[in-house]
Amino acid sequence: MLTGLLLIALASASWGTTGATMTLLARDTGVGPFLVGWARLAVAAPCLVAAAIASGWLVPVARRARPAAELRRHPALLVALGLSMAAYQACFFWAVALTGVAVAALIAICSAPLLIAWLAAAALGERPAPVVRIALAMAVSGTALLVVGPRGLGEISGHFGFGALLAVGAGLSYAVFTVAAKRLLAAVAPLPVAAATFALAALFLTPALLGEPRPLDRLVSGWPLLLYLGVGPTAVAYVLFTAGLSRVTATAAGIVSLIEPLTAASLGVAVFGESLGALGVLGGAFLLASLGLLATRSP
């Protein structure tokens, strides 16, 4: 279990660099957050598909067709994975546009582990141990403090109604992805699962580009950072996440994934001169303590 937690922690730390990269993209190129979401999928998908095909040549000939055959046996799970990943990009970045980063992050990131625990209990039969429930409460509370801490409640404003609903939709999309991936990983290796997910997600999200002004010009202007986002915090990170998810419960994975906002906050302090504030520091301590609780129950 500890190996799985470490893999998910690495993936989540990588996701935490996304916000800083998006800040640089917005400042230097004007690429909007929704276009960034599509570009992440479009870059990651061919990388993952190529890696999955290449990895097939490293196994015995008799087993080379097995991942593709297993994937075809689970069309509903594949569609759920692709749609949930595409929906996450659309819901989260639209929520950011309506409510701001603080509100969107607070609602989406904090709701996801709770929704994962609920869906995992309903769909996978998971029953979190008491220590996991305590860790979940500490992690969600710590994340809320971490997001609110640098700003204060007075600075969290915006078109809350619809934007908040979209942020919850982002959290739900991530929860559906996690639980569907957990079920599919019982039959298929992590790399083919990630490849199929992002190929379908990129396909599902492509029609939304019709509403973007001059998307090609903006993609070209920001290609180095977009390439990094697609390869590092997306392709590589989700391979690590699915590999870790195959070793731990979905609920534990949801808790450890909250390392993402902790990494983002740390980068904000180190690179952009931001301040966490007393609440932010307390939230970070809560989050780290919750991870310690999970680690202590690992065999």
How do the strands and helices of this protein lay out in sequence?
Blueprint: H1 2-15, H2 18-28, H3 33-56, H4 66-72, H5 75-99, H6 101-124, H7 130-148, H8 160-184, H9 190-205, H10 215-221, H11 223-245, H12 250-256, H13 259-272, H14 277-296
In short:
The chain has 14 helices and no strands.
Query: What sequence of helices (H) and strands (E) makes up the elements?
Result: HHHHHHHHHHHHHH
Q: What sort of overall outline do the alpha carbons produce when their principal axes are compared?
A: globular
Our estimate of the beta-strand percent is under 5%
Structural class of the secondary elements? mainly alpha
Number of domains: 1
Low-confidence stretches: 57-64
Number of strands: 0
User: How large is the count of helical segments?
Assistant: 14
What composes the largest sheet?
none
Helical content, roughly? over 70%
Oligomeric nature of the chains: single chain
Rg on CA atoms, Å: 19 Å
Alpha-carbon distance between the termini?
7 Å
- What is the residue-averaged pLDDT? 82
Provide a descriptive summary of the structure in words.
The protein has one domain (2-296). The chain is 79% helix and 0% strand. The protein has helices spanning 2-15, 18-28, 33-56, 66-72, 75-99, 101-124, 130-148, 160-184, 190-205, 215-221, 223-245, 250-256, 259-272, 277-296. It starts with a helix and ends with a helix. The model is unreliable at 57-64 (pLDDT under 50).
Q: Which terms summarize this structure?
A:
single chain, 299 residues, mainly alpha, 0% strand, globular
